[in-house]
Structure formats: C-alpha cells, structure tokens
Amino acid sequence: MRIAITTRISVPEEELRIEYVRAPGPGGQNVNKVATAVQLRFDVRHSPSLPEDVRRRLARLAGRRLTSEGILVIHAHSRRTQDQNRADAVNRLKELIAHAAVPPKRRKATRPTKSSKERRLTVKRQRGEQKNLRGKRYSGED
C-alpha cells in the first residue's frame, strides 16, 4: 500500500520501518507492560519515491530528527494505543514531506520608491536634530 502525500509524490509503506517501544512518562502499571510508543524510520537519502529537490528540502527541514546516515526518525507516544500512535507518526511524516514538496518562492529584487527614500531621510534628519538638542548648552561666555 502507498501513502499519498501530494498528487505526484507517494511513498510505499515498505519504505517505512516501524518499531513499537515502551512510552516514557507516567501511565501506571500499563506503561511498563505494553509497548504503545511508535518509532518510525524513513530513509530520506536513499528513498526512490522522492524527487531530488524534495529530498534535499526534507533533509533540511528534519533537522535533529535526521541521523548521520540520512534516516528520519519520528517518535510518537502521546496517544494511548499503538494504532493511534502509528497513525500520528505517519501523519507527521506526511506533513513533513508535503511541506518539503512545496518549492520556496523566488525572491524578486525590488528598489525602494523615491517617496520612501525621502521619508527615511526626513525621519533620519529629525532624529539627528533631536539628538543634537540633547547636547551641552552653550552659555555664551568665552
């Protein structure tokens, strides 16, 4: 089965490695017996499902979640069941890849308008005059 991210990108579930581990934090007796937390691993660097540009942006977005081998690790342990945590981890992966799939907008170079330059210089002059008035007073005696 494939996980659809965008119209042109989908990831087969075989590329995901999911491990169930014990969840940290409080939870009574159940927390020590049942492995409800999910650790999802996705090999960003070697995934044939992702275009090269998306792969680069995803690696940048992942930050500390990306290992030195290029594997994205997502921990999900906020829900009470394995299924809910698994769905949460997969959704977070989908959101991350979808965010990386959107190319950044190119910055268009612009120039300031004549009136904005004049406004900036006027304010600058006024501030300078205000600061000059704060100086020592001239007593008139020489």
CATH topology: Double Stranded RNA Binding Domain
The value of Rg in angstroms is 28 Å
Report the order of strands and helices: EEEHEHEHH
Which strands sit side by side, in order, in the main sheet? 3-4-5
CATH class: Alpha Beta
The CATH architecture designation is 2-Layer Sandwich
Q: What does the main sheet amount to?
A: 3 strands, antiparallel
Number of helices: 4
Low-confidence stretches: none
Please state the average pLDDT score. Answer: 88
Q: What is the terminal separation in angstroms? A: 93 Å
User: In total, how many domains does the architecture comprise?
Assistant: 1
**Approximately what portion of the residues adopt beta-strand conformation?**
15-25%
What is the molecular shape?
Answer: elongated
**Number of distinct beta strands:** 5
User: What fraction, in percent, of the residue positions are helical?
Assistant: 25-40%
**Class of secondary structure makeup:** alpha+beta
